Fold this sequence. Notes:
heterodimer; A: 77 residues; mainly alpha; 58% helix; disordered N terminus; B: 561 residues; 2 domains; two-stranded antiparallel ribbon; 21 helices; transmembrane (chain A)
Amino acid sequence: MRLNALYPRGERLWRVLLTALLLMLVAGLFVESHPHFGIDGWPGFNAWFPMLACAVLVLLARGFHRVFGPREDDDGR
Amino acid sequence: MDAELIHHPALWLILGGIVLGFLRGAPRALLSLGLPVFAAWLLWGIPEGIYGGMHFLDYTLDILRVDRLGRLFALVFLLALFVGSVYALGQRSRLEVPAAFVYGGAAVGAVLAGDVVTLFVFWELMAIGSTLVIWAGGRDAYPAAMRYLMVHLFGGVVLMAGITAHLVGGGSLRFEAMALDGLAQWLILAGFLINAGAFPFWSWLPDAYPRASWSGMVFLSAFTTKTAVYVLMRGFPGAEVLIPIGLLMAGYGLIYALIENTARRVLAYAIINQVGFMIAGIGIGTEMALNGVAAHAFAHIVYKALLLMAIGAVIVQTGKRDCTDLGGLARQMPVTCGFAIFGALAMSAPLTAGFITKSLVLQAAADAHLTWVWLAMMVIAAGVFFAAGLKVVVFVFFGAPRDLDAHEAPPSQRWGMRLLALTSLAVGCYPPLLYDLLPFAVDYQPYTGGHVVFQLQLLLATAVVFFLLRDRLTAMLGSLIDVDWFYRHMGPRWLKVMVYGVSIEIREVVRLIMRGIANLLVSLHRHYGTRGVLARTWASGSMVMWVALLLLMYLALFYLP
């Protein structure tokens, strides 16, 4: 059982999220951007960079969890 | 002594807080709601300038300084105090709200202090007031309150040492920008950073704040760390060392928030994350960066208090604090859930305060061409929405229902949340409301097509990756060892050894040595024993290869300079 699935509206929400993201990606092609560093001028930078960043954060958190966790005192409930 | 001092808002708040302790029922509610409004009226009426004239030792103190920066922070604190009082109308503790007024009053006094001695007095008063707010959380909160007090008294001692050395060394009594050119200034900086929750003194915040009562943490989240942000802005704008310090805090806050199970501790880590973001902004130090930090301090107080209010309401209804015990509350508490969703969005979504403030700091980093700092700030902007906003909302209000007996939050709590949401919305829809109060003139337009679309891309992409990875997050929920482990567990252990002598620990030490020797013997046997790797019969080809390799190494060594 998936513990924190957003049911029963999970599927619908998922589709809405993806559609909105796609729409925004398309919209991003038509708005003016002012890249400062080069990399922020890559297509869809504001979409793929946060995704990559969050995935790396989760990986890092897993590493931390292995090294520093779990805590076994009154804080580690 | 100047006559204006009688109008000092902090004086009225602190005295009012003491009187509140003796009142009950309607008079108490009226006073707690009226005092912040009265103090704001007083503050608004004082013309910009420096007021004081009070003699202390050999110094003449400038107790009250009103300028744009101080007034902005003081007004934000008064707003937090007012909305917190509305939310806490149902609070039964007789200590908490009066203590919160002393605490908030001291914070207002600190941001309006014109000299370092007055600042120090209010700084210490804040430590006492906030300790009492935590203590009001009940018997379980007492040890955490004492640990919190110890850290802050230590920070106060460091600050006092710095101020003394600064004054003895001929430094100015007036609290203004300082250069980091001596031990005194470094000590002052360290004293400020301890209150901001910087490494290695960051674990006091997630240790103490979440143990306060359901309403206590709303007050706590507003004052101490934001006062630290203010004094860093005033004392050390553009100090480059603040950039790595801030980014380290932000990274720590994100990783620990991702793993943490207790909902309000997740938000406590998010406070460290966002204060780190602000401190890095102070390190950039341009006018736009400082404007952005001041504005973001406001936005952060508003959205963090809103999220804490929503979780506080959940704690009142269910008595549960951990993500693993909560879930599916959106059906029982739809209004609270709505406010929590708004609080998460108010971190950076268009039409909320977070959008118009965070983008100022990001723009400042871009204008200064600090590529890595800008990229790190992008990670922080996405990460805090991911690790705190989405996580808390989804794990507490959605997901598998836990058959909890919960009802919608009472009207006083809903009004507290409503006022904050309206504030964030008003500022987000009409930025000049906030921009006109900032310390420097603002030449920035947050609502361009590019900004809005790119920000929405960021939020939606973060939401998508959250739903892809949420099972992994669920599997990780727990708590991690933090810096406080050293002084809470290892410290007392070594103290015991020092007090009672080595004898009680000797058995442990001998056992460790014996285990080490045994491990060594096993390892030796594995390599050199009768069946060891080196005892095997090897093909002559491999012998030739190793000899050739050795000769090559000699050759290489010979030709090395």
